[in-house]
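A quick word before the example. In earlier lectures we treated sequence and structure as two separate objects. From today on, think of them as two lines of the same record. Here is Sensors of blue-light using FAD written that way.
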Amino acid sequence: MRLHFLCYSSIRTDDHENLLEEITNILQVARVFNKKHHITGVLYYSHGQFFQYIEGFKPTIENLFDHIAVDKRHHAIHYYGTLPTEQRRFKDWSMKYVKGDSRIRAFLEEREKNYPVSYHVVEDNLIVFIEELILIEKSGDT
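And the structure line, produced from the sequence above:
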């Protein structure tokens, strides 16, 4: 079976819960589930906005996204799509967390300014964005 990845961004639901506690809970649950289902990826959060990149086998990650999409802790979900990939980009992380970073925030803001854009532009920008996450992860800035 071929590997795929999917990405989405969303806005945190402002329910006045403790942000640190909420993200810790998300990561704990994700890491256990993802390890069991051979899913890897990264979660980014900054200024009320989530971005998540998930990689694994297509049926598994799409089923996971179906559950993520109905989670009440976020809304305004923008699903970027599911695409094939030759290799895992975050193979060592059942779910890596990347905290706020100005480069990533700028990408998300630019993406929102230029909406709607063609699928190919989104795909190209996603690859650049994911590469930026990888560079941040490797630099230890998280």
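Notice the following. Confidence is low (pLDDT under 50) at residues 116-121. We will return to this example when we discuss secondary structure assignment.
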